[in-house]
UniProtKB/TrEMBL annotation:
<dbReference type="InterPro" id="IPR002637">
    <property type="entry name" value="RdgB/HAM1"/>
</dbReference>
<dbReference type="Pfam" id="PF01725">
    <property type="entry name" value="Ham1p_like"/>
</dbReference>
<dbReference type="InterPro" id="IPR020922">
    <property type="entry name" value="dITP/XTP_pyrophosphatase"/>
</dbReference>
<comment type="subunit">
    <text>Homodimer.</text>
</comment>
<keyword id="KW-0547">Nucleotide-binding</keyword>
<comment type="similarity">
    <text>Belongs to the HAM1 NTPase family.</text>
</comment>
<feature type="binding site">
    <location>
        <begin position="161"/>
        <end position="164"/>
    </location>
    <ligand>
        <name>substrate</name>
    </ligand>
</feature>
<feature type="active site" description="Proton acceptor">
    <location>
        <position position="70"/>
    </location>
</feature>
<feature type="binding site">
    <location>
        <position position="70"/>
    </location>
    <ligand>
        <name>Mg(2+)</name>
    </ligand>
</feature>
<dbReference type="GO" id="GO:0036220">
    <property type="term" value="F:ITP diphosphatase activity"/>
</dbReference>
<dbReference type="InterPro" id="IPR029001">
    <property type="entry name" value="ITPase-like_fam"/>
</dbReference>
<dbReference type="GO" id="GO:0009146">
    <property type="term" value="P:purine nucleoside triphosphate catabolic process"/>
</dbReference>
<dbReference type="GO" id="GO:0036222">
    <property type="term" value="F:XTP diphosphatase activity"/>
</dbReference>
<dbReference type="GO" id="GO:0009117">
    <property type="term" value="P:nucleotide metabolic process"/>
</dbReference>
<feature type="binding site">
    <location>
        <begin position="189"/>
        <end position="190"/>
    </location>
    <ligand>
        <name>substrate</name>
    </ligand>
</feature>
<feature type="binding site">
    <location>
        <position position="71"/>
    </location>
    <ligand>
        <name>substrate</name>
    </ligand>
</feature>
<dbReference type="GO" id="GO:0046872">
    <property type="term" value="F:metal ion binding"/>
</dbReference>
Length: 203
């Protein structure tokens, strides 16, 4: 079974591909994705965006199993922000970019700015991911995964992407950007959601 991922994010593709192998499946980037106009992400929930994207891209890739995800970080003391706007948080906050900084670095800096002065015991966060699988514009399956952590006051680690350098896992005494690839695949919100989806398909 081959599942085609509707994203060009190399980190997501790597995480999904490693898990798929354990279920006799493979994950590849959706063919011709670069030539397909980007799907709108206007829904107010992770599930809404994931389903919308899966239906959109699968209707443009006849016969293929197309997987779309929407995921992000919810911080308790920020009323669950950045939430569905995690990838565009700095832009939404009109947070100025530092010359040479990446989009991830700008988002991390914007989050730290929003949490300035907030003590550690109030910095709980949750990574959430919703996956949607579709074929020919028809929804086949959805799954969700989450992981709880604490938002640090400075980034640590080089292995992750997004908010991983700030997302601290107390039980491991490491950030999501410090854990091994194998640990991340097992513990991450994305990994848990994909495991759940593949188990549903296995049965």
């Amino acid at each position: 079974m081959t599942i085609y991922l509707a994203t060009t994010n190399a980190g997501k593709l790597r995480d999904f591909a490693a898990i798929a192998i354990q279920h006799d499946a493979t994950v590849e980037t959706l063919p011709g994705l670069a030539s397909i106009p980007e799907a709108p992400e206007n829904e107010p929930t992770f599930e809404g965006n994931a389903v919308s994207k899966a239906l959109y891209y699968s209707s443009r890739a006849p016969g293929l199993l197309v997987l779309a995800d929407d995921s992000g970080l919810e911080v308790q003391c920020l009323n669950a922000a950045p939430g569905v706007r995690s990838a565009r948080y700095a832009e939404d906050q009109h947070f100025p970019p530092t010359p040479g900084s990446t989009k991830d670095e700008r988002n991390n800096a914007a989050l730290l700015h929003a949490l300035d002065g907030i003590p550690e015991n109030c910095r709980q966060g949750r990574y959430r991911c919703v996956l949607a699988l579709a074929r020919d514009g028809e929804l086949l399956q959805t799954a969700e995964g989450s992981v709880d952590g604490v938002i640090l006051q400075a980034p640590r680690g080089e292995n992750g992407f997004g908010y991983d350098p700030l997302f601290f896992l107390p039980e491991l005494d490491q950030t999501m950007a410090e854990v091994s690839i194998e640990q991340k695949q097992r513990l991450s919100h994305r990994g848990r959601a994909f495991e759940s989806l593949l188990r549903q398909l296995d049965t």
